[in-house]
Design brief:
about 325 residues; alpha/beta; D-Maltodextrin-Binding Protein, domain 2; Double Stranded RNA Binding Domain; five-stranded mixed beta sheet; 13 strands
Length: about 325
């Protein structure tokens, strides 16, 4: 029986375990093992985070999205795990000393999904319909398009949210397309939001493989890297950094390849959705242009921040 070589930290939700399981197989392959040995050589270590245990309040009320990574990062720093698999949109821009983002694998669909038992899209919802989301960005974008909607705060894992929708707690919900796809639940999707018109959370659909510095260039970490995704995420997170993005700021950013150009659109909205501030730009596309992509994001994000000012903060 092979011995553990890479211990993978993950949240214990169904989606987190699915994502970590996909990376587990790839890490095992990079180490020369097949899927049947994956759990032995790269075991999943389930870690309950503060963000998982508090389900009745928005993240902005309890300390922000870092609550999904704090305990996992502590386990890495203490040597109990060798890496962690996070949803990139849950990873704060500021890194903890001693830890790095060693790999960003190929991205899933970055768009937001419109899910409803009765309606095809946001425009079809009746006047005053209830829309479920726990995301300040999704709330602000929806209210910008449909100020008549009533927002319903819905947290919990994907299955829990879908159950609440089926119980009639809202007429529709907005969820990440990537999570639904990874869980095999794409059949619930009625339509997808245009990522240029309604940019998703920076890094949405991408995973982050976080490691202690010593593992940054490990063979298994290098095997997970996807240059186009890394480039797009660098641009989007540059905008997030400039906007000091947190759960208290409604920030969307979307980067994509357009021929020989990398294009980026950035927006921030007032929490009530009444005002929206947008910028877009582009750079020459190159797989090694990560620094330039981040600089583009920083520049556009800073322009949005200057224009929106204090109105952007909840």
């Amino acid at each position: 029986m092979p011995q553990p070589l890479v211990r993978i930290g993950t949240r214990a939700s169904k989606l987190a375990l699915t994502q970590a399981g996909q990376m587990q197989v790839r890490i095992a392959a990079a180490l020369g093992y097949g899927p049947h040995d994956a759990e032995a050589v790269a075991p999943l270590v389930r870690i309950v985070t503060t963000g998982d245990t508090i389900q009745d309040r928005r993240l902005l009320e309890i300390g922000g999205k870092a609550l999904f990574t704090k305990e996992i990062e502590e386990a890495m720093l203490e040597g109990r795990i060798d890496c962690a698999v996070h949803s990139m949109k849950d990873v704060p821009v500021e890194r903890r000393p001693g830890l790095v983002l060693a790999a960003i694998p190929e991205r899933e669909d970055p768009r937001d999904a419109f899910v409803s038992p009765s309606y095809a899209n946001l425009a079809d919802l009746p006047q005053g319909a209830r829309l479920g989301t726990a995301s300040l960005r999704r709330q602000a974008q929806a209210l910008f398009a449909r100020p008549d909607l009533v927002m319903v705060m819905v947290r919990g894992n994907v299955d829990t949210r879908l159950t609440k929708l089926q119980r009639g707690e809202a007429e529709a919900m907005l969820l990440a397309m990537s999570g639904l796809n990874r869980l095999g639940l794409s059949g619930f999707v009625r339509s997808a939001l245009d990522p240029i018109e309604a940019p998703p959370a920076p890094g949405q659909g991408a995973l982050a493989i976080e490691t202690p510095i010593r593992h940054h260039d490990a063979v298994w970490a290098q095997a997970l890297r996807h240059a186009p995704t890394t480039l797009a995420v660098a641009a989007e997170r540059g905008a997030l950094e400039a906007l000091e993005g947190s759960c208290r700021t409604a920030v969307g950013a979307y980067a994509w390849r357009d021929g020989d150009r990398l294009r980026l659109v950035v927006e921030a909205l007032t929490p009530d959705g009444r005002e929206r501030f947008r910028r877009d730009g582009e750079i020459a596309y190159a797989d090694d242009a990560e620094t330039a992509a981040r600089a583009l994001g920083l520049s556009l994000g800073d322009q949005v921040r200057v224009e929106g000012g204090d109105r952007l903060q909840l």
